[in-house]
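(Deposited chain)
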Amino acid sequence: MTHTARTVIATSDAPAAIGPYSQAIVANGMVFCSGQIALDPRDNSFDAGASVEAQAERVLSNLDAVLRASGATLADVVRTTVFLLDMADFAAVNAVYAKHFTESPPARATVAVQGLPRGAKVEIDAIALLRAR
């Protein structure tokens, strides 16, 4: 069995992990980003009263920061999973998502869940390719 190198990604530009996981792992030319909720990276605070649109904007900003720390960008994302507390928020989150993935959007699954950390309304994880630079 062969093992390949993996690199842990950690950046102060995105919220610190709130459990035993990494913000992202780079392995085999790919970036595997943990799910992000709308935590403020400055102090890990969370505004439970924020709209789902505002939460989605923060989530995608946090994902972008993790990707940039790895050497990728949102344009390099090939797969996401969107977790929604309420499927009624699908259109609102989709509108925010579409602003960040304008060309060749990644493959995606959207799943309704019973709960998310800190009472979040949306969480998104991502897988991206590292491009030769």
Notes: The two ends are 30 Å apart (CA to CA). The chain has a mean pLDDT of 94. The domain at 6-129 is CATH 3.30.1330.40 (60s Ribosomal Protein L30; Chain: A;). The first helix runs from residue 52 to 70.
